[in-house]
Amino acid sequence: MKKNILLLPCLLLFIQCSAPVKKKETLTPQGADAYILAKAERADHQSATATGTHYAVSTQGIFSTQAAKTIFAQNGNIIDAAVAVSFAIAVERPHSTGLGGGGFMLYREGKTKRTYAIDFRERAPLLSTEKMFLKEDGNPDSNLSQNGILSVGVPGMVAGLIDIHARFGKLPLVKVMAPAIALAENGFAVYPNFKKALDNKAELLKKDPAAREIFLDAKGNPWPMGHMLIQKDLARTLRRIAKNGKKVFYKGEIGEALVKFSADHKGLLSKKDLLDYQVKWREPVKGNYKGYEIFSMPPPSSGGIHVVQFLNQLENDNLKEKGLLSTTSINLAAQSLQAAFADRAEYLGDPDFVNVPTKGLTDKEYAARRRKEFYETTARPSQTVGHGFVVPPHESTQTTHFSIMDYQGNAVASTQTINGQMGASMVVPHTGIVLNNEMNDFSAKPGASNLFGAIGSNANAIVPKKTPLSSMSPTIVMKDGLPKLAIGAPGGTRIISCVAQSILNYIEFNVPLYESITMIRYHHQWLPDVLDIDPPGPRPEVLKDLERMGYKVQIREVPCSVMAVARENKMLNAASDPRDIGTSAAN
Ligand code: DON
Questions:
Q1: Domain that holds residue 541
Q2: Which of 268, 275, 443, 470 has the CA that lies 20 to 30 A from 291?
Q3: Domain match, 567 and 481 both
Q4: Does 188 share its domain with 98?
């Protein structure tokens, strides 16, 4: 573990670091220095990459990857493994996800050749109102929408995981949940990313007695690195769910505890919110890029639409010839993101409440029109970028990700979250459940930005039962009828940039899987008009060029941890972003 701690800063400043650096010049004719080349050195039981023929898995945890291994060893199928990972990661990353949150899963079923997009994200409570996060002066109160009980959406995680398991799982739920229960009971050592979240949120956690008891010591300080975090209440909650299924959460004691806790804090969650909660089975967003088929998450995520739009807009540019992380490639890709994010702000919201022009936004001809607006030799100031005009639809928009593939042509990509670090920083007493602050993903008013600076319109206004707009982009790329790549990431709005760029690295630039997800990334979300580039930034001459072209470049982390698995020849390869404790396994 210690080595990892030392290695993290090294990864981001790899040029100066003495960590082992493995050069692969042959792969990067135009940008050898653009790779993050150091493979994370890990303790014996973890690995950033893995190769096998039976399955490959990449999660943002150590024990969560181990949970998948355990389930496959017991002859479980890919869904058993995915559900086991989901419950285990809820224990291992209580700052990122958990039973108080929600998520999306993309599942490609090999035998039927169907791809499911499953939405178990939080919904707005029945008592929520459009202006609930506005202060008297009409401006948004970000504290209200980010911290405390009003920021909590109706959790969907338990319903989603149980429904998915009931439909596709093979092993009994008790077996699938056993690794998570054991982890909650036996504990794990506090690790750097978790410690950082505890440090950031200590003041808020201190105010909530149940959160304080779990995450802080007697003096109210965050547990130190290496402290064994045991979550007894969460273990009991998990055991109850393993035994009784989702009804104990939505109709039983756990739900009652949640509703009471909400009422005690003048929150909005009601019994009816829980009774009404429905998992939504949606049609994935589809696209294609140079012979690859892309399946991704549809609205209420914006992610899938914009990953497809980003690729469409660049498809005819032959970026490979222009060079990986070259000035031209970054310029065009940044403008591709700018255009996508301007559309996001205008059009995207929950498709059950607003008409989202998915077809129009993912259309090749629309992409070609948008592409014509790009500036070739200078940056395009964001005030000159508007949303595009698409044909209205005829028919009726801290986190974690894991990816799994198996030998039967099945693939899972799932992104799950409680939103911000530690969510609402509140724990339902005696349950160990950390509550989400997903209500912050709504637009408090048109033009107001959320925690990630994302702007929204009326399409993303708060309405009871509506789902807040997301950027989560679990994606499966197909080639010749088989899953080629399953990929996704946490990181708020950056998710779209990180997933889209990793796909581009892999299928356009032919960069190997691990390097595709670890290399320097850039992010532009239209507003603010800033181009973020991972430290240490691109080659100095590229940086100079970009600045001369008018980009306001900020060399700062584009904070996503990408988790990917790929089928390459007959092998299944997994790769985890070493920016965190992501771990891969395969057999
Ligand atoms: O759904 C979304 O887009 C956000 N709630 C995701 C939050 C996230 O990725 C935080 N992570 N770093």
A1: 282-397+473-584
A2: 470
A3: yes
A4: yes
